[in-house]
């Protein structure tokens, strides 16, 4: 069995992280790798932040002066990843989730915080594996299908009320 190391850091103080959310994030990372039939040991870093912190990162790295729900920082390209010399694990990259935004979106879409954080984690993991949705075409559709497959595997199926608005990605 391949080893999956998910390092989770909480760098925000506004919202208490519910019991089990860290385990859900780990399960979600595992589920994406299973759906993608990814082979090999991996490391992923997930950082939980507030809107102000993610806005700063979005401004620095994407030139967008606004908060967003999740950012992905892939460490690989075209299936090639840096490797941890001590463990041999492929370093997939970093995921940054705004817990403030996740709470707002869960309320807006009428589902649980767990569903929202699971979805954001799956979405970001797919970015770390090379998926993109900037063209709004077939890749976006494939990404959405994979996200929903992961959510169903985790017992967190989507609802028809989940709609992505332009500019909220």
Principal-axes geometry comes out as globular
**CATH architectural label:** 3-Layer(aba) Sandwich
Low-confidence stretches: 160-169
What is the average per-residue confidence, as pLDDT, rounded to a whole number?
A: 89
Order of helices and strands: EHEHEEEEHHH
- Topology, number of strands: 6
- The CATH superfamily is identified as Metalloproteases ("zincins"), catalytic domain
Count structural domains.
Answer: 1
Short structural description:
This protein is of the alpha/beta class and 169 residues long. It has helices spanning 21-35, 51-62, 99-109, 113-128, 138-153; strands spanning 4-10, 42-49, 70-74, 76-77, 80-83, 90-98.
Structure description:
- This protein has a single domain (4-153), classed as Collagenase (Catalytic Domain).
- It is of the alpha/beta class and 169 residues long.
- Residues 160-169 have low confidence and may be disordered.
- Helix 1 crosses helix 4, helix 1 (21-35) packs across helix 5 (138-153) and helix 3 (99-109) packs across helix 4.
- It is built from 5 helices and 6 strands.
- The protein starts with a strand and ends in a 16-residue tail after the last helix.
- The chain has helices at residues 21-35, 51-62, 99-109, 113-128, 138-153; strands at 4-10, 42-49, 70-74, 76-77, 80-83, 90-98.
- A hairpin with a 6-residue loop joins strand 5 (80-83) and strand 6 (90-98).
- Strands 1, 2, 3, 4, 5 and 6 form a 6-stranded mixed sheet that branches.
- It is globular and about 40 Å long.
């Amino acid at each position: 069995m391949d080893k999956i190391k998910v390092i989770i850091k909480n760098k925000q103080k506004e919202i208490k992280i519910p019991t089990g959310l860290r385990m859900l994030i780990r399960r979600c990372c595992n589920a994406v790798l299973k759906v993608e039939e990814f082979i090999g040991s991996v490391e992923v870093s997930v950082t939980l932040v507030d809107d102000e912190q993610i806005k700063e990162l979005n401004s620095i790295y994407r030139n967008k002066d606004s908060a967003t729900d999740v950012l992905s920082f892939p460490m690989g390209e075209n299936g090639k990843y840096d490797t941890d010399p001590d463990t041999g694990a492929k370093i997939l990259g970093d995921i940054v989730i705004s817990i403030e935004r996740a709470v707002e979106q869960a309320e807006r879409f009428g589902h649980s915080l767990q569903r929202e954080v699971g979805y954001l984690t799956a979405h970001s993991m797919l970015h770390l594996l090379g998926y993109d949705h900037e063209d709004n075409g077939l890749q976006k559709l494939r990404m959405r299908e994979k996200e929903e497959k992961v959510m169903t595997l985790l017992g967190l199926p989507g609802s028809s009320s989940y709609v992505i608005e332009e500019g909220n990605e």
